[in-house]
Amino acid sequence: MKLKLSRDDLAFRLHNRADTKLIVAMINKDQHHMLHGYTAEKFEQDLDEPSERIRENTFIVELANKMVGYFSLCFVERETHISVYCYATVDMDWRRRGIGSAMFAYIFDHLQHAAQQGNKPIHFIHRALTSIPGETALGVNLDMEVQNCLQIMCLDDWSRAIQDIQPNGFRFRSPQLEDASSWAEIYNDAFGGNKTAVSVIHEFQGVEFSPELYLMGVDEKGTPVGLICATNRGNHARIPTLAVKREWQRHGVGRALLSEMLRGLRAAGALDVRLSVESRNEAAQALYTQCGFEPEYQRIHYSTIFSKI
């Protein structure tokens, strides 16, 4: 029986660049981790996402000077509050020992202090994968509310993946830096987000940007109306974003973008592809199912609020 650890058994300190390779190795040890195939260069780039204060809120968790986990907190300014997302992992060899609970106790204290110092309440979101034992239990045990649920879907049977359907006058092209504002506009229109051109340029200039894995769909006038992007690490691909302007939805644009991207991923040697979709978005789930994607596991978003007492 593994002995449980408490917060007092662990040391927490700010990340420094010398930790990065160890963090990436810890992430890649888990073949099922959503970031499997991560590189040190990509990790460092992500810490410098504009206006999200990630580098100054990335911590190492140690037991007797041995790294057993890490977490990064991403602060996103909203009009009425600050959303904080957490990227974290516990070393596979140290899971189910109470380290995750200790990390969350530290995070909660850190965010309560930040809320006391700031002018807006903080909405913390814990993204728990049902494929990793204990992650959903953390949200439940800490009395966090379920905010929403994403279905992770996987394509590994390519027989239905690629469909030659393209709306009249519609074409694909790779985005350029000057398309950053249009990329952000499409994303925000589709998802109600607050992505900025600055953050898009940061992404386009990043180590994983590839013209073949980023596509914009434009109408007959050349106006961007949809977008899709992907990563392909070790022949295991992910599609983090597929977005279509609302006025162009249900016109076959999403299907055309998805099919074109799958064609490129298949040619690049991808063995399987994963993406996530809101569990309530039945239309999108139907599209992915028609293209050969099958449900694999879920990502449940739990939330809690910190404000001035």
Automatic annotation (TrEMBL):
Q: Which UniProt keywords apply?
A: Acyltransferase, Transferase
Which residue range or ranges hold the N-acetyltransferase domain? 10-161, 170-309
Gene3D superfamilies (UniProt xref): 3.40.630.30
GO molecular function terms listed in the Swiss-Prot or TrEMBL record: acyltransferase activity, transferring groups other than amino-acyl groups
Under PROSITE patterns, the record lists:
GNAT
Transferase as a keyword of this entry, yes or no, is yes
The residue range of the signal peptide is none
* Record's protein name: Acetyltransferase (GNAT) family protein
